[in-house]
Write a structure and sequence with these properties.
Length: about 220
């Protein structure tokens, strides 16, 4: 069977969610780079594959899917049914889904914070945007009290999704270390497959935005 095709760009956080899932499932993959900074997602060839022209997109032997969290849950269900990465137990799965929704909120809050820097020539992140991100992280920190991972004591796709977005926040200056449960969890994930690939993408965003902000420490310094 042909490997899964992944249309991907490493500075795209959603792309890295899909790749982390593939790495942790140890799947064969053909990575096809779509450089969104050059608008390659708007090419006629890619638009035929995904009319919504978003990445990541996968092609699993003719089955086309986009939206990173949908890709993550599909890959586990299709390639490793019963895996603890996306458990079959309905209650455990519901907690994973709840954390994925939290991750989606965190991603959108991060986008709102970064967009003025990226597109509108701002040099600082607005205080209300920081507060929104810290509120979500504070909730997650509370949920994690007494457990190893975000949805319990086993690694799941919710950890992979949140790792992507929290690593990006680390690299753009968020003071994540003040949340002790998240900081310990983040350190714990350094050994999972794909961690370094994800970190390289997060640093790519971080270096770009830090240069625009002339930021050396954290937002709180």
């Amino acid at each position: 069977m042909a490997p899964v095709k992944l249309y991907y760009f490493n500075v795209s956080p959603p792309s890295r969610i899909a790749l982390l899932t593939i790495r942790n499932l140890k799947l064969d993959v053909e990575i096809i780079i779509i450089n969104t900074m050059k608008n390659e997602q708007m090419s006629p060839e890619f638009m035929k594959i995904n009319p919504q022209h978003t990445i990541p997109t996968i092609d699993d032997n003719g089955f086309i899917l986009w939206e990173s969290r949908a890709i993550a849950s599909y890959l586990v269900s299709a390639k490793a049914p019963g895996s603890s990465l996306y458990p079959s137990d309905i209650k455990k799965k519901a907690i994973v889904d709840a954390r994925l929704f939290l991750d989606q909120d965190l991603f959108h809050a991060s986008e709102e914070a970064m967009y003025p820097i990226y597109e509108q020539k701002a040099t600082t992140i607005a205080e209300d945007k920081k507060e929104k991100i810290y509120k979500i992280l504070g909730n997650l920190n509370t949920f994690m009290e007494g457990q190893k991972y975000v949805a319990g004591n086993e690694l799941t796709i919710a950890d992979l999704a949140l790792l992507v977005n929290i690593s990006t926040l680390y690299e753009i200056g968020a003071n994540v270390n003040k949340f002790k449960n998240i900081a310990a969890w983040y350190k714990r994930l350094e050994t999972i497959p794909g961690y370094q690939e994800n970190l390289e993408g997060a640093k790519g965003i971080g270096n770009f935005l830090r240069a625009k902000m002339t930021l050396k420490g954290t937002w709180d310094d």
